[in-house]
Amino acid sequence: MRIGASILFLDGYCFQSQGWNFLRPLGKIDNVLSHLDNYKVDEISIIRPVRKNDSFRDFIRDIKFLEKVNCSTPMSFGGGIRSLNYLEKIHYLPFERFIFSSELFNSKSNLLKEAKFIFGKQALVGLIPFKYNSDLKIFNSSVNKFISPTNLNYENLNLCDEVILYDCLNEGREMGFNLNVIDELKINSKKCILSGGVSDFNFLTKYKKNQIKSVLIENKVLHKEYSIINHYEKL
To answer: Helix or strand or coil: residue 94?
Structure first.
């Protein structure tokens, strides 16, 4: 099982989100990536936390900060990739993989098929933010709200090599990821990347036993507690 880091990125700065509604500044992108390189994580996921009102100009502004980043750790990037024009702009960015979220609900778009043709399936990662209270709701950024999982387009989801399941209730906390979402969405656990509340050593052991593909730790980024990675290496 891989272990990586998840950070949010806007306008040159990185953030840690807590509970899907509060952003904690982490610093400039170059400084954050430099620290994460030193931690020697397996991967870094950089996500723009955008909603319905994100524009192409906003997107271009952010990727200009990413064009010259220097990082030896494999990186993924996503957030607001919405058309072929966007694919053309990210083609030469220093990223191994690209993350798609709202496209997982879009039955009328061929964007993921176009992305698969350009980058290959191994470069495509789906992102499903979710809340699990009495029932499961998943977030569609194109309409900026949580909706029923019945709206998920599995044809598009299957175009992705892996899927990040992002626990919005537990993100930024140490409460533990809700594993029920895997069975609820009927996704092969070997295809899953878990993020949101993934921080406890005992939970990491359980994830490994469940043959989870990878975990992304967002609530330990750039803090001394990130030594959890050293514990993981002993498993």
So the answer is: coil
- Nearest one of 63, 69, 68 to 50, comparing CA atoms: 63
Q: Which amino acid is at 134?
A: S
What is the rounded end-to-end Cα distance, in angstroms, of the chain? 10
Q: Mind listing the pLDDT tens digit for each residue in 176-198?
A: 788 889 999 999 988 999 998 88
**DSSP for 28-72, written as a single string:** EHHHHHHHHHHHT-S-EEEE----TT--HHHHHHHHHHHTT---S
Query: DSSP states of 127-189 as a string?
Result: EEEEEESSSEEEEETTTTEEE-GGG--HHHHTTSSEEEEEETTTTTSSS---THHHHHHT--G
pLDDT tens digits, 45-63 = 999 988 777 889 999 999 9
